[in-house]
UniProtKB/TrEMBL annotation:
UniProt-listed InterPro entries: ABC-2_transporter-like (IPR010390)
Signal peptide: none
This protein's record includes keyword Transmembrane helix: yes
Keywords, ordered alphabetically: Membrane, Transmembrane, Transmembrane helix
Domain of life: Bacteria
Stored Pfam families: ABC2_membrane_6
Protein name: ABC transporter permease
Residues passing through the membrane, by range: 21-43, 55-76, 113-131, 143-168, 180-199, 233-255
Keyword Transmembrane helix: yes
Length: 267
């Protein structure tokens, strides 16, 4: 465990060096946050039926998306791992005195954490200082804030476990393009990144509830705004843990199967 913690720490420190990329990312995320909120404000102002999600909750939902984008985006990738698999340098990974799954998991987790640390606080600060209706509100209670922090971190672990399946699939496809496109399009849609899950038609919501993606973004963001009650949030944490265990189990089994049939050419 100490080896994986050290890898995570080193990758986290290394990721903090990319400040210029973080500044560019903050500007982009603030811009898209304003655009999305303006679109939703326009729709809400013309709506003649009760909204399934109050506008202040929706505004908080959008700003949390932008602030913690590194936690929840599926197109976030480590090209080094892809090159290890497709270039044959996976042989060096097999020589390490540690598990490949845990090693890669720690690397991916640290990269997402370092990217989010550099961006989330400035974005949230701007969001809290904006005028209405763009202003982001506080959670309804300290308990809701604590549950949000727990669910967000569990969602981060779930998204890394899903990302591991993308990398493992490259052992068979030998090209990351297809896996990245499929997972990112489907995953981010059902996570509520395009349309918040409460605004989807009923049948699409049922599909989203049956998949693990909404537990990475939609669930913690709605816990923050109080749309999901505390009792339901506690049950949701249990579901997150079950999904995390299932995804890690499938990932470790798939990686073991892939490594048993891997062929490294060259010398």
């Amino acid at each position: 465990m100490k080896a994986y913690m050290s890898v995570c720490k080193l990758r986290f420190i290394n990721g903090l060096q990319y400040r210029s990329a973080a500044l560019a990312g903050m500007a982009t995320q603030l811009f898209f946050g304003f655009v999305f909120i303006m679109i939703f404000v326009a729709f809400y102002s013309r709506s003649t039926v009760p909204a399934p999600m109050p506008l202040p909750s929706l505004v908080a939902y959008v700003w949390l998306q932008q602030a913690f984008l590194s936690f929840i985006m599926l197109w976030f990738r480590d090209n080094e791992i892809f090159q290890l698999i497709t270039g044959g340098n996976i042989a060096y990974e097999l020589c390490r005195p540690c598990g490949i799954y845990q090693f890669w998991f720690a690397k991916l987790l640290a990269q997402r954490l370092s990217s989010a640390v550099l961006r989330c606080l400035p974005i949230l600060l701007v969001a809290f200082l904006l005028p209405e209706p763009y202003k982001m509100g506080l959670p309804p209670s300290p308990a809701a804030l604590a549950l949000f922090a727990i669910t967000l971190l569990l969602g981060l672990l779930v998204i890394v476990a899903i990302s591991m399946l993308i990398y493992i699939s490259v052992f068979w496809t030998m090209s990351p393009a297809g896996s990245m496109l499929m997972f990112s399009v489907i995953g981010e849609f059902f996570a509520g990144m395009v349309i918040p899950v409460p605004l989807m038609p009923g049948w699409l919501q049922n599909v989203a509830y049956a998949l693990p993606f909404r537990w990475t973004a939609d669930f913690p963001f709605r816990v923050y705004s109080g749309q999901i009650p505390q009792a339901e949030a506690l049950w949701g944490i249990l579901v997150q843990l079950l999904w995390l265990a299932a995804l890690i189990g499938v990932g470790r089994w798939s990686l073991h199967k892939a490594l048993r049939h891997v062929v490294i050419q060259g010398g």
